[in-house]
Every structure is written in C-alpha cells, then in structure tokens.
Amino acid sequence: MGIRERLSGNEAVAYAMKQINPDVMGAYPITPSTEIAEILSEELPRCGGHFIQMEDELASMCAIVGASMTGNKVMTATSGPGFSLMQEALGYAVMAEIPCVVNSVQRGG
Fold first, then answer.
1. Best CA proximity match to 70, nearest among 28, 99, 38
2. Which residue among 9, 32, 77, 99 is the one 20 to 30 A from 108 at the CA level?
3. Quick one: residue 4, left, alpha or beta (phi over 0 = left, psi -120 to 50 = alpha)?
4. How far, rounded to the nearest angstrom, does the alpha carbon of residue 87 sit from its chain's CA centroid?
5. Which pTM was predicted?
6. Burial of 69 (0-12, 13-18, 19+ CB in 10 A)
7. Contact between 103 and 86 (Cβ < 8 Å)
8. Average pLDDT, the chain
9. Nearby residues of 103 by Cβ (< 8 Å), 6 or more positions away
10. Exposed, middle or buried by CB within 10 Å (0-12, 13-18, 19+), for 20?
11. Is the separation of the CB atoms in 103 and 36 below 8 Å?
12. Packing angle between helix 87-95 and helix 57-69, nearest 10 degrees?
C-alpha cells in the first residue's frame, strides 16, 4: 500500500488543482474556502502560476474570465453566498463559452 495522508476537503481540492497546473487563480478569501486560496497562493508561484487576491467575489470571477480569454487555465474558489455574488460574470462566461473552473465550497450545518 502507498503512503496515506489525512487531508481536509479544501486541502485535497487545492492539491488536485495544483496537479492540473492552472496559470491563474483569482480568489477572495471567504470561509469555508479560504484554505484553498491560502495553499494555492503559496504553491502556484512555485509552478509558474499566478495567484491574485481580489477585493470581492465578482472581481475574482471577472479576473479569471479575463485571464481565460487570453488563453490561460484559470480557477477560483468560493462559498455558496460568494457563488451567488459571481452570477453576473459567471453568466457572461457561460454565454461566451469561456472555460473557467469554479469551486463552490459548502458551509456545514
């Protein structure tokens, strides 16, 4: 058997995203998804990627849409309420068929 490691869901997502080597991650730190941004803010520059901390959820979605339009692999992570705030830019990305990875982390409860 291989080595086993205990990870939280956010850690597992961050390390899985690192494996696909995204060029840009734009994120606003909001619980419960903050750990993904924290991990990738350290890991992406080591792989040649860029992490951009944005001022709010809509700005993070707009940043990755713009980066994707220039040919970059992009992602963001947010919570359920943050995902609701991204709808305007997400709708544009869907209509214009702009590829983006959006991870919505559910709050417990």
1. 99
2. 99
3. beta
4. 15
5. 0.88
6. middle
7. no
8. 93
9. 13, 17, 33, 36, 75, 76, 77, 78
10. exposed
11. yes
12. 20
Alpha carbons 12 and 31: distance in angstroms, whole number: 16
pLDDT tens track for 45-90: 999 999 999 999 999 999 999 999 999 999 999 998 899 999 999 9
User: CA-CA distance, 33 to 77, in Å (whole number)?
Assistant: 6
Q: Do 72 and 20 meet the contact criterion of CB atoms below 8 Å apart?
A: no
Secondary structure (3-state) at 13: helix
Q: Judge whether 68 and 76 are in contact, CB under 8 Å.
A: no
Q: How far apart are CA 65 and CA 96, in angstroms?
A: 10
Q: How far apart are CA 5 and CA 13, in angstroms?
A: 14
Q: Which amino acid is at 3?
A: I
Residue keyed to tokens 């590829």: 99
Residue type, 9: G
Residue with tokens 């990738």: 40
